[in-house]
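ok trying again, last paste got cut off:
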Amino acid sequence: MIETFAKVDSNRELAPGYRLLTLDFDQDIRVRPGQFAMLKPSGSIEPLLRRALAVYRAHGPRRLSFLYQVLGPGTQALSQIEQHGEVSILLPLGNSWPINEPASQRALVVAGGIGSASVLTLCEELVA
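nice, full thing came through this time. structure:
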C-alpha cells in the first residue's frame, strides 16, 4: 500500500454525471484487476474522507484512470479538479480477482453499473 500524490492529466466528463480521471505518478504503481484506490483533492478539508474508486485502466506503470459517477460531495469535489491539479491517493487496496485458468480456457465476464469499471483490467489480463 502506498500513500502518495498524483498529478491530474485529465478529468473529463464522458456523459452527464460520469467522469474519467487520469492521474500521473512520479513512481511506478502496480495494481491488479479488481483493486481500488482511495482519493481526495489534495489540500482540501472537505470532504474529510477519501473516496473509493475502482481502477479503470493502467496506462503503464505511472498512469492510472478512474471512471466515476458524481453522486455526493466527495465525488463532486473530485469532479472540480482540473488538469495539473493534485490528488491525495492511497493504493492499491483490496483483493484482486484470481486468474488461475489455463490459457486454453474461455472466460465469460458479466458486469453492470458504475462498479463494473474495474472489469476492463480483468478482461485485458484474461486476453493477455
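cool. The longest strand covers residues 2-15. The two ends are 25 Å apart (CA to CA).
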